[in-house]
Amino acid sequence: MSSKSKLIVNCAATHVSAAEFSVSGGRLVLDSFQMQGLSYDYSVQEDWLHALRSALRVMKVSGHATVIAPSMLLLTKTIKIPHVEASRQLEVISFEAEKNIPYPISEVSWDYQVISDDGVETEIFLSSMKSSVADEFCSVLSSVGIIPDAIESGSILDYNTWKYCGLPPDVVILNMGARFTNMLVAREDGIFVRSIPVGGNVLTQGIADSIGHSFENSEELKLRFFSNVDNNAQSSGSEHFTQSADSVMKRLGDELKRSILNYRRMGRVNAPSKIYLTGRASLLPGLAEYLAETQKMSVEYLDALSGVAVGSRVNQPLLANCALQMSEVIGEAARLVLPESMGVNLLPKHIVDEAIFAKKRPYMLAGAALLAASVIPPFLFFHESLKSDKSQAMDFAERTPTLIDRADKLAEYQEQAKTIEAKIAGLEGLAMSKSNWINLFIDLEKRLMEQKDVWLENLKVVRSGSGATQKYNLELTGRLLIRDMGGDTYDTEKVTARINDLLASFKSSPFIKEYENVRTDPTNPRILKFDFTLVVNPDKPI
């Protein structure tokens, strides 16, 4: 496949298609096309991946491909940021993405597309997919031999189709799928995008609720009824289908009006003048007429294939039957020829890194081969020089016993030096310990004077452990006077405050690490007996 060729796999909610495009004379050429419906209960999204794998195996598609993900896997949002220089744009958008994506940013694969910029504000299309979902999606694709080069969000690809087909500006492209309808207003200076939660499945669910059948059975009845609605309209029970269809059209019309109103409130001077319908669900009978009447705009179906040449290998009847499901595929293919196109890539970063490494692997192997070959000349040189060095090696071997004796003596002297060094360190520690004793008693005396009315009766040093793990504790016994004691009643609150102040004062000393084993004797409410243990700071040994 040449650099101007592309395989596009469109994974929708109800079908999967594979289209291979090339370019000839600046025009897209559809070289091959196939489509396969997905066999599962459309109301159970968890079964979608299994159905997708089965369909792709039947289609036997493989190789590098750009994959279009369905809207049901994506979270899309349009945000506005202040206009900033290009070097700071990613930083600002990343900050806004963390606020607007309802998951930790580390747990999603996300990308963005600038859709308009008036010099004051920049409008950004933000799209994301949970990393776990993206990994599972890629795993299914890889299991059938598809290597995804990119995962595209189909929401903005219709802009590329609009541009490639040369359609007029200020128009609405309404792409109706099974679960969502993507609304896109295309204009010369950008786009307006909104995802509307109305699609073919909403109609199926309405019919299922009305007739009391399962979703899967109702889907089959829906297709059978609307494939020949003129003849079936008079049949028994037809009101269940027509009423559900009317409800879906009204809901879609209301959402469309609301979206266009929001679009106008954003300061857009030109209101949309036309609606282009695409997507399989847009074939709902009467939809075009209903939208034309309620939206006061002309409505027609989008012919996305109008500017595409079709190769001889393509099944023409199949392509004609799937024409309304091709706009996103054409939009992605148009990026081969459009100088300025839109798109986002939600391929997880670790897969992108693996792909980059895979491209570099041949060069790395070639480099490794050159490196291996480069050692041959030096090896031959050293082989020759090794012969001349043998005599030197023999001379060195003769001198080795003398050198070994010297090494043994050096080792002996080194052990003696270590012994002397340990003794010096002990003397230094002793000198420091003596100084610390003096400073410790000065510090304790100072703190007792600050506390007032406190005297010590006994101070005992208790050592435990040895060497580096040796600990020093000071066991203190004494009394303190409580002057403001009212009467002869033991006041627990005052006693506690008084003893806590004393302990806090000791603990703030640089020589004391902590205190423990605090005991008091409340026999005399005015003169409180106490004893506790102070743990000496190991950095200041005594």
Q: What ranges have pLDDT less than 50 throughout 5 or more consecutive residues?
A: none
How much of the sequence lies in strands comes to 25-35%
Mean pLDDT: 87
- Under CATH at level 1, the class of the largest domain stands as Alpha Beta
Characterize the biggest β-sheet: 6 strands, mixed
Order of strands in the sheet with the most strands? 8-4-1-2-3-14
Q: Helical percent range?
A: 40-55%
What Rg do the Cα atoms give?
A: 41 Å
By CATH, the architecture of the largest domain is named: 2-Layer Sandwich
Overall number of domains: 2
CATH topology of the largest domain: Nucleotidyltransferase, domain 5
Oligomeric composition of the shown chains? single chain
How many helices in DSSP terms?
14
- Name the CATH superfamily assignment of the largest domain: ATPase, nucleotide binding domain
Classification by helices and strands: alpha/beta
How many angstroms does the end-to-end distance come to?
82 Å
Q: What spatial form do the alpha-carbon principal axes imply?
A: flat
Number of strands: 18
What distinguishing features does this structure have?
alpha/beta; 14 helices; 18 strands; flat; 542 residues; 26% strand; 5-stranded mixed β-sheet; Nucleotidyltransferase, domain 5; 6-stranded mixed β-sheet; Alpha-Beta Plaits
